[in-house]
Amino acid sequence: MKYELAKLYWQQFEIISYKCLIESVSPNIQFIDGGSDKGREMLYIGNSKEFRDDLNGKWIFQCKHKSGELASARSSLKSDLKKELEIVYLKNAQKSDNYILVTNIPITGDLLDDLQKIFDTFIKVNPGTCSDFGIFSYRNFETILDKSPKLIWQFPNILSHPDFERLFKHPFQKITDTRTKGWFKGVGERRSFFVHTKQTDTAIESLEKNNIIILSGPPKSGKTFNAEMLALYYVGNGDYEAIKIDNPDDVEKFYNTDRNQIFICDDAFGSHSLSYTDADDWDRKLETIFNLSNDTHKFIFSSRENIYNAFKNYAKNFDESFLPKTTISSEKLSDAEKGAILERYIQLSNLPEVSKQEILNFEDNIVNHPKFSPETVRAFFKNYSSFSSGSITSQIFDHLEKPDDYLRNIFFNLNKNSQAAVLSVLCALESDYQNVQKKFAQLREDLNINTLKPTITEFDELDGAIIKLIKNEEVEQVDFYHPSMQEFLIKEIEKDTHGALRKIILKNLNTILINQFILGLPNIKPARKELKAIEIKIEDVNLLKEGLKRILDNDRIRLYNIIPFIKWLSDAETVSSKIFAKDLFVELKDLVWFIYLNIFTETIYRKLKDESLVKWMNFLLALKTLELVTGSKRPDSVKNVIINLIDDKKTDQEFWRVGLLGNVFLDEDDFKNVVGKSWLESFRQELISDINRLGRENYGNYFPNGVDAYRATFRKSGKTEKLQTKKNWYPTFLVCQTKVKLLKLTKSKAFNKKLLDDITKEWDILMKISQTAKNRHNFNVSQGWW
Hints:
Layout: H1 10-24, E1 30-31, E2 42-45, E3 58-64, H2 70-91, E4 98-103, H3 109-125, E5 132-136, H4 138-146, H5 149-152, H6 161-174, H7 178-190, H8 198-210, E6 212-217, H9 223-238, E7 241-244, H10 248-254, E8 261-265, H11 276-292, E9 297-304, H12 305-314, E10 325-327, H13 335-348, H14 353-361, H15 363-367, H16 374-383, H17 392-401, H18 405-413, H19 416-427, H20 433-446, H21 455-462, E11 467-471, E12 475-480, H22 483-495, H23 500-506, H24 511-514, E13 517-519, E14 534-536, H25 541-553, H26 559-569, H27 572-580, H28 582-599, H29 602-608, H30 613-630, H31 636-649, H32 656-659, H33 662-665, H34 668-675, H35 677-699, H36 707-717, H37 729-745, H38 750-782
Parallel strand pairs: 3-4, 4-5, 6-9, 6-10, 7-8, 8-9, 13-14
Antiparallel strand pairs: 1-2, 2-3, 11-12
Helix pairs in contact: 2-3, 13-16, 19-20, 19-21, 25-28, 26-30, 27-28, 35-37, 35-38, 37-38
């Protein structure tokens, strides 16, 4: 059959039946939720749109979902009909004009006659209960689904394999990025585990309305899976190109105005805790992305609720209207939906039939367990061979009580080579296969592991359980299936205060690990201890040097791989170490010198010179903060790199982002010579012009000297002063604000001091209205008025 409706759980079948009957009978059909339906899944009063134009009056719909052998399903349907008629019309004393049996199986002539005979016999014995009988069967579903791609892609697992490949092929061919192709191919393969819930409908409705959403919720609730299935829905239904993004720059890289596109960013702000580097980037770019979203370009973000809240508290420019929130939570699932999820994994598992039935016997207890969640269920069925002995139900309840304990069993029962493979996923600079493969080789060397086993074999054996491979023709990316494995490993490092695992990790740093660092200070409770895990002590500094050196040796290094290390060293704990742990502070100062000597080299500069000016600006600002915190001096090599950077970027339209920072790292004479007096004068005139234009847009000729008088007229009249800002007012203001902040970094130097003095009055006026302008800008954009 074209649509495999038998793959649906009964609750899913009721939902798709309701949606199809709306199309075929009437949008006014009433769906009855819960277990007290008295044998009536749906009710309606009126005429039929298409299904049966000879029927009218009161309708009762009864859904019967059948799976297994067709002969057995047809026999079961006949026995069910008699029982259901008795429940509806005798036990519950209902009356109706029409009784419609809704089923997923095809109806033969013989079966139709048998079912009609059962109905006629019942009515003859019980006159006045109902007049007419109808059957809404597989062929009715097929007719509606053929015309309703939206409905098909809400339940993608009903598509048979050849039909799925055919429908999937065209939009899939549009994807040009091989990593995204590999990821989305995996999404198509995982569709068989998907269960449509009310949360799915809510997410689709929100994305249709807002074009950009964040799926937020607790761990293990299925945020990633829901995001992927939303992408699949739009690819199948709206011919969208699905693109997986890992950072804000990916949006600019792949955004195409001529295509329908849907962007997915999973765990945008950090998978284990808030990633401060990612947070800075997203804070800066989310408004731009918000403005890029429209009916043909949609964005789905996902984040754990606690990490999303941490991001909101940390971010300076973020407005909640940028990301309308849809909560994905296990607590919001109905018992029927939880049961559907459980049964789906049972059906698709390799468990013996007796074990499957044993679990089903305890279904109510399992779905009502307080720690039941979609990811917890998935983890059990993918890893049940790793659990303790005993009955299958005792194993699943043990797993629900401590849903992450299996990770320890899995990891420490792996051979050393496989453990190194798992650690390489944690420690790799990026998750692409080339980086993970290189890190795997490095870890095997660190651990003195000699093996002839191919690298990919290790990952293939772990795939689908704790590792997720993204493949197209070849492996493109390697990641943990769920962040809980990453969390487990970090906790193990935290506990392993002096062991080999800790040393290995510190020698193989990446951004994720650096974001977990705290300084171990005697008798001082570290700041953000609840968010951090890996405590760094004086004996660790040399290991950190080795770790940083390995990062720098990577040919594919980027500035965002380095910035977290510098920001961590600039943290408040470093300041505290100057007072409470002087020996450690001395070692940290030495580490800063090591950073300068190893980063500011011609070799590293060649690797990084093509980075965006925003990244270079953030990098240099982080260095400036580090100098203030540690009081460190810089070697002459820094000056040479800054001069090369300025020379290489002079033609870039955003050159000012690094040009102005030259005044921080160079003597003023060198700064003026390298940047050029003509550029400085041009920059000066442009900034003054932009500020005056922004001021006049609001105050006209009153700006700047008559603004107080302008405001006084409003106070006298009792009216509120209104801002007359255009669409680009606030974005232009933000650019000016960044320029002013960079000028203030060296406000004592002649050029900066003179320019700041020239704009002080005008800038103060703009700052007073900036928050109001921001609120108005965000509101107008959210309403689609711009």
